[in-house]
Amino acid sequence: MSLQRRYITVDEELGKKDDDHREGRRSAMSSPTTTNFTWRGPRRKRILLAIAVFSILYIFFKNLPKDAALATRRQGLKSPAVGSSRQAPSAPKGPPPRSDSSVDERRYFEGPIKYYRLGASFAAGLGPVHDNRNVLFVVSNLKSASRILPLACDMSKQNKNRIHLMLTGRDEIAIEDIQKINGVTEADCSIRWHDGRPDFSVYSTDYRMEVSVRASLGHITSVLKPRVVLVDSPEREDIFFTTGIKDKTRDLGLPLIELPVNAAEQLQWISKLDGSSLKAWNEINIEILIHSPPESSGSLIRLLRSLERADYFGFPHPRLTIELPNNMDPPTAQFLSSFRWPPWSHTGNSKLTLRHRLLSNHLDATQASIRQLESFYPSNVPQSNVLVLSPQVELSPLYFHYLVYTLLDYKHSNTALHTSEGIMGISLERPFTTLNGKDSLSIPEEASTKPLFRYQAPNSNAALYFGDKWVELHSFLSNRLAADKDVHKDGDAAYSISQAYPSWLNHVLELARARGYTMLYPSLSSSEAALATIHTELYHPPEEYLDPTPIMAENPPPSKETPLTASSEPIEITHGPKFEPPVASGSLLHLLNPKLSSSDSGGPLPGLSDLPILSYTGEYLPQGQVSLNQAALSYADDFSRHLGGCNNAGSGGGEKESKKNKKKKKKQTRPTRKPWSADDLFCLEEGETEESLGVGRMPPSTQQTEGAAQKEDVGEEHAGRPVDVDKDG
């Protein structure tokens, strides 16, 4: 029996089982010869498994930091100084081990990256998922933090965004100490703090720190999903930080705003913008268009110098297009030969385009309007804008601040996405007369407390037009030419624009009245500094309104003995203010609100619905947009019948209507309105637009049988425009 048991025990050690012979558990201290207490040794697989488990546990506890017990704790999203009652785990103390003892540098560590405090700040304060208003500031050193904090705190006071600030870099100072140094408390600066500094940051190489910046931004983005990331100027940040933050934001598709050096002093208005406006920071595009009349070198040079002196606060300089006359004067040619735009650019990086006019013939009002509108067409309609400037303008160094600020706030903010459709553009000039050049423009008292007001009149001296409205204006003039060759026949005889303004403003006004569009104007008084000063001493009237006939002396010159005299009649200049205020400088917020103290940045811009509205005649509209919409519906209906060709009786033909017009089958109902198009204001057959512009064929032979008079009419229609003639016709 004992031999049999010994045989089974051996078999068990070899991995076999015999439950039928198993009689019970035996004591390990029993004699091996005892039948009931024969000892059974452990299986080989169990021994190996136990060794493996023991090895894993040993390695885990060997490498576990001493403060691992604290790693599972979670503190509030804010730092202890801001209101958290829990203590965050601290990173390992002392230097990490060196892989090479011969390395003598202080920054040598390139080991795995761990964040002991970053995850603890993700627990609270993120806000609802459907209302993401998170804006993230990221800094890498204490100096950047001290420069960023004023803007971040001011932005938090506006209650438009949830402000977060993440620390990266090598500084080991605690967040609560940073707050104390900068005088930040929860009461006056309710921002959320995040510590994105890795372990052993002081001893880390630049490459490890760059990887750490990328990784920490990836972690916080996955949780917060910020609308935009703001950083200090690259000139003041660490190179590893600048490289890492640019690469990671590009990979994540996050908008990155690199603030200029003087952001705390000159860019305070950025704190008034919401996340949607900031998100569009890098998307907006502004191009400048200047039409230079003959013999205007002095005015043009002054304007270009003011463009050079302007502050673009890190923004790419706008593309500049100058339309030159045929007879360009020598001073203009000499100045432009050495002019660089941007000022620091080389030949390959120039954003300057010069267009010299070939023909020397006099332009009429229609040709001048076409030339103006054809000078620009947006490549990206929602984001492109054109700034139209007259050579008699001198711009403030703050003009670009004002344009970007108002453009972002009134077109790209959360509220503007549903209310900006009625805005055509932004004017830099504050007009003092209405478009007829006779009546003074008085702003109601309600507007005196607001930095801006809305006015239905367009502007040609210094105004930014939105890309979508400029495309719609192209469509409007194209249809206008097709519907009526005499496009400058006044549709409203009771009101006409002064000839001190260029002819293309007539079409802008017609479109504005038909749509109910307005422009934003600054409410600056004549005694204050201006964003754009209009100089009248070198004024040149529009070319289309000049007499093309040279002035010939009908009488012989007076004798030397007879003194020359001046007319005693007063000369009234209606194309600009009689007082020319100086251009503004300093702070934009204090310019828009002079009552602010030097330490106060004020509040955000008022909403569009809160701005006073003036009609195109300068009349104050208490009902605002409601009155504009009612007037627009009435005007659009009258315009479509009388000038748009949507009603035969209203086309002006009557019984004497020509046979040519009778053969045109006009649509009786207006088409459906489409985005960026004015086709709904006209009822035209296909091909009429091309024929009116002179790019179609000559009328067919059936229409040529009406005689020479009709041929003369056709010639007048296409005067000054290219015509493709059918050789067979």
Descriptive tags:
9-stranded mixed β-sheet, 3 domains, 30% helix, Spore Coat Polysaccharide Biosynthesis Protein SpsA, Chain A, 729 residues, alpha/beta, elongated, Rossmann fold, disordered C terminus, 21 helices
Name the CATH superfamily classification of the largest domain. Spore Coat Polysaccharide Biosynthesis Protein SpsA, Chain A
Structurally, the number of domains stands at 3
Summed up, the helix count is 21
Radius of gyration, whole Å: 38 Å
Structural class: alpha/beta
Q: Would you report the number of β strands?
A: 16
Unreliable segments of 5+ consecutive residues? 1-39, 64-85, 570-574, 648-667, 690-729
What is the highest CATH level, the class of the largest domain? Alpha Beta
Let me know the average pLDDT. 80
Q: Report the sheet with the most strands, covering strand number, pairing sense and barrel closure.
A: 9 strands, mixed
Q: Architecture of the largest domain, CATH level 2?
A: Alpha-Beta Complex
- Report strand %: 5-15%
Summarize the structure.
The protein has 729 residues and is α/β, with parallel strands linked by helices. Helices cover 30% and strands 10% of the residues.
Task: Describe the fold and architecture.
This is Glycosyltransferase 2. Residues 659-673 have a biased composition (Basic residues). It comes from Endocarpon pusillum. Residues 1-37, 78-104, 553-579, 646-729 are annotated as: Disordered. The chain has helices at residues 2-13, 44-63, 142-157, 175-181, 206-224, 239-252, 263-266, 275-279, 297-309, 330-338, 365-374, 399-411, 445-448, 467-483, 504-515, 588-592, 625-642, 659-662, 688-692, 701-704, 708-717; strands at residues 134-139, 162-167, 192-195, 228-231, 256-258, 285-291, 319-324, 352-356, 384-389, 393-395, 423-427, 452-455, 462-466, 518-522, 532-534, 613-614. The N and C termini lie far apart (127 Å). The strands form three sheets. The protein has a nine-stranded mixed beta sheet with strand order 8-7-6-9-13-11-14-12-16. The chain has three domains: 1-64, no CATH class; 69-93 and 107-279, HUPs (Rossmann fold), CATH 3.40.50.620; 285-546 and 575-595 and 604-614, Alpha-Beta Complex (Spore Coat Polysaccharide Biosynthesis Protein SpsA, Chain A), CATH 3.90.550.10. Residues 1-39, 64-85, 570-574, 648-667 and 690-729 have low confidence and may be disordered. With 729 residues, the protein is α/β, with parallel strands linked by helices.
